[in-house]
Design brief:
Blueprint: E1 2-7, H1 10-20, E2 27-32, E3 42-43, H2 51-60, E4 65-68, H3 72-75, H4 78-84, E5 88-89, H5 98-101, H6 103-113, E6 120-123, H7 126-136, E7 140-144, E8 153-156, H8 159-171, E9 182-186, E10 191-200, E11 203-212, E12 215-217, E13 221-224, E14 229-232, H9 239-259, E15 265-275, E16 278-285, H10 292-297, H11 304-313, E17 327-335, H12 351-355, E18 360-364, E19 367-369, E20 375-377, E21 381-389, H13 392-405, E22 411-412, H14 419-425
Parallel strand pairs: 1-2, 1-4, 2-3, 4-5
Antiparallel strand pairs: 6-9, 7-8, 7-9, 10-11, 10-15, 11-14, 12-13, 14-17, 15-16, 17-21, 17-22, 18-21, 19-20
């Protein structure tokens, strides 16, 4: 099969590596890719958001399957454009991608389908939003209604923090159109986990689960980021619990989407909070997470390409997905200053040294080559150092040894990825 993978992050490097291992693959293109994906296939200088150019390329190169990585092209209608061109795409339509593109849409689906989630209200007037915060008190959650690259959620511990978040999103325009409307909801308490499934119509096939670590600092301090690390599988969330959550959170949503005439075909990533009252939905995403994909795919024991091809055809009857019994840990190395203004251009070395360690794999994200051909940092989240091992503790130790082998002066990372899970195990 000739495959076009869309995206340029660590998730896409992990997907590219998995696809490159398939005996069914004849050619892999990645648009736009990064220096890491270039080791798995051929990078193409087309932006992930340029839907028209992506479809033109796919048509010209006789692409059999388009695999979307990030959410933005899906919300922009990539799958719709592929369908019009007669090209298979393993992702949802623009209408179905509203599950991620609009927090309000997701909440309305939850209410209609009886899916447990936090109490919520939507606002387009900042004064009304602030009035609710003052009535409800803190902690409270403020979410930009639209896409904000993982930075549109503020878990405010004080009323002042919530008011600042509302002002930043709705008045200061820090998130652009994404923040012109906000959803304010109660703050759920518990362990947050990420559940993944292949979905088509009313059918859902479990992929697996991971646990992300969103905040920039140790001990879950500081602002939210796109994700600073992950473990898989999460402690206390085994396959039986994952299947139960699929019945509770995903299959009712799929039925409601079919009822509305916007069936979902693609990958669902359900962010869940494991509360004392049972699991509750935080949000839906319509693609693999990052860095959850890296933590999941490094454990993959089956061929990903046939599963994605079947997904694109809307038939999951023969889809099998399997993972090793080993645990995995993923540590994100970000640029100093992230998630605000961050350092760029620093030389990166030691990836080969890290990957020479047992069970370690490094996936690239915000990297590029300078004029001399050296690998340099060019983004906020730059590398994900992953490792597998028979136990979670060993996987975490291996991953941090991999981090220690990387030489990059501007790197920052959390030192406590998986610490809560280890404490729960013990």
């Amino acid at each position: 099969m000739r495959v076009l993978l869309v995206g340029s992050g660590g998730r896409e490097h992990a997907l590219a590596a998995a696809l490159a291992a398939s005996p069914d693959l004849t050619q892999l293109y990645i648009a736009p890719g990064n220096p890491g994906t270039a080791l798995c296939g051929t990078n193409v200088a087309i932006a992930a958001g340029n839907v028209a150019a992506l479809v033109d390329f796919a048509r010209r190169e006789a692409i059999d399957l388009v695999v979307p990585g990030p959410e933005a092209p899906l919300v922009a209608g990539l799958a719709d454009a592929c369908a019009e061109a007669g090209i298979a795409c393993a992702g949802p339509t623009r209408a179905a991608a509203a599950l991620e593109g609009s927090k309000t849409f997701t909440k309305e689906i939850c209410d209609a389908a009886g899916i447990p989630t936090a109490r919520w209200e939507r606002f387009t007037d900042p004064a009304h939003a602030m009035a609710l915060v003052r009535r409800r008190g803190a902690p409270i959650v403020v979410k930009a209604d639209g896409l904000a690259a993982g930075k549109g959620v503020v878990v405010a511990q004080t009323i002042t923090e919530a008011e600042t978040a509302i002002s930043d999103m709705m008045t200061s325009d820090k998130l652009g159109d994404a923040g012109h409307a906000v959803v304010i909801e109660e703050c759920l308490v518990g362990e947050e986990v990420s559940l993944f499934a292949f979905c088509s119509g009313e059918t859902a096939v479990l992929i697996g689960a991971a646990q992300d670590h969103k905040r920039i600092g140790d001990g879950d301090t500081g602002p939210n980021t796109g994700g600073m690390g992950a473990i898989s599988p999460p402690a206390g969330f085994d396959r039986a619990a994952q299947n139960h959550a699929l019945d509770l959170m995903v299959r009712p949503m799929l039925k409601e989407m079919v009822r509305r005439g916007t069936p979902f075909h693609g990958i669902i990533f359900a962010g869940l909070m494991l509360t004392t009252e049972g699991p509750k939905l935080i949000e839906y995403n319509v693609r693999f997470g990052d860095p959850e994909a890296q933590a999941l795919l490094i454990r993959l024991s089956t061929d990903l390409l046939p599963a994605l091809a079947a997904l694109a055809k809307g038939s999951l009857a023969d889809v099998t997905i399997g993972f090793s019994d080993e645990a995995s840990a993923a540590i994100v190395l970000a640029a100093r200053g992230y998630p605000e203004t961050y350092a760029k251009g620093g030389l990166i070395a030691g990836i080969d040294d890290a990957e020479a360690l047992p069970g370690v794999r490094v996936f690239q994200a915000g990297t590029s080559r300078n004029a001399n051909g050296d690998l340099v940092a060019s983004g906020g989240r730059v590398l994900t150092v992953c490792a597998t091992a028979p136990t979670l503790g060993e996987a975490i130790t291996r991953a941090y040894k991999g981090v220690g082998a990387i030489r990059w002066d501007d790197a920052v990372w959390r030192t406590d990825i998986g610490a809560r899970a280890l404490a729960a195990e013990s």
